[in-house]
Amino acid sequence: MNVIEPHAKLHEPFALYGVNLASRLLLGTAQYPSPDILARAVEASGASVVTVSLRREQVRAHKGERFLELIEATGARVLPNTAGCRTAKEAITTAQMAREVFGTDWVKLEVIANDDTLQPEVFGLVEAAAALTKDGFKVLPYTTEDLSVAERLLAAGCEVLMPWGSPIGSGRGLANRYALQSLRAYCAGVPLIVDAGIGAPSHAADAMELGYDAVLINTAVAKAGDPVRMAGAFAMAVEAGRAAYEAGVMGARDMATPSTPVAGTPFFDFPPVADDPGNGK
Amino acid sequence: METSSGSDIHVNGVPVTTGAATLAELVKELGHADARIATARNGNFVPDRLRGATQLVPGDKIEIVSPRQGG
């Protein structure tokens, strides 16, 4: 039987670019019903990192200020994204603007190829990652599960990779679980975060059980009937999945195996009864 | 570049005629002087400290952005 026996892993702290983070759940801040619900969802999630963005400011409006105050009050570390950027150049400029406004050199690098799938434009992604790393940024690239792209991002200086589970906002979970498993095995020792596509806590637990170091969630929490409660549900799922990974998940088997000991089963040595209802009388 | 009658530029994609000679003056004119904003000119980042030295030229495309919700 081809079953890999599980092995317990060491409990290791979660760190990105040398910064220890208490939670393996990263939370997006968009699409919540209200600023108050957003703030409470961040708290309930226990997230140490929240993603933010930059958008055009209106004349004499101070929307940015108000949002930033809300986020800073949560105590979470901000991770600015380059959402919506379609070229390396746009992403690089956006990252530079974000570094100044948010005061962090961390950037969730997104270069988007296609409006329908919002899939990463991996050529521009690698180009921007190399340029930004050279400029002192700590790049967290939103990428696909492709191994050769992963290699190039690591060669460009990325110390963490964020492959998609499925398209952004689709809630479909791990669409290519096998490829994500391969990536996990291939990039041993590299922090990997499933970013995008997680729709339910079970998807998050699944990613964590595969050995992913963290998950990044937004829509699944923000668009839940009760975002605050869902944030808590995801926090539990992420913890459960990680604990399961460290404990060592059993391998699947093709056939049944009794869980109750066979030895000492009463009537064990009696002849089969199926074809003789009168047996024993 | 000195302009007496104002420059026709784009700010965040909207056509604007401004008397501001520099990016710093434009930012002030639009009420963002002390705001947490960042700027770009023609697709290139312009740091806060360089806005005063950045002359506006007709046809410039200026971006003025601020923090927002993001995923």
Describe the structure.
- The complex is a heterodimer of chains A (281) and B (71).
- With 281 residues, chain A is α/β, with parallel strands linked by helices.
- Chain A has helices at residues 35-45, 63-74, 88-102, 122-134, 147-155, 177-186, 201-209, 219-222, 227-247; strands at 14-16, 19-21, 25-28, 49-56, 77-80, 106-109, 138-143, 162-163, 193-195, 214-217.
- The two termini of chain A are 41 Å apart.
- The relative contact order of chain A is 0.14.
- Chain B has a five-stranded mixed sheet with strand order 2-1-5-3-4, with helices on one face.
- Chain B has one helix and five strands, in the order ββαβββ.
- Helix content of chain B is 10%, strand content 37%.
- With 71 residues, chain B is mainly β.
- The interface between A and B is medium-sized, with 39 and 25 residues.
Largest sheet of chain B: 5 strands, mixed
- The end-to-end distance of chain A, rounded to whole angstroms, is 41 Å
Number of helical elements of chain A: 9
> How many β-strand stretches of chain B?
5
Mean pLDDT metric of chain B: 91
Proportion in β-strands of chain B: 35-45%
Strand content of chain A: 5-15%
User: Rg of chain B from C-alpha positions?
Assistant: 12 Å
For the largest beta sheet of chain B, what order do the strands appear in spatially?
Answer: 2-1-5-3-4
Main interface by residue count: A-B, 39 and 25 residues
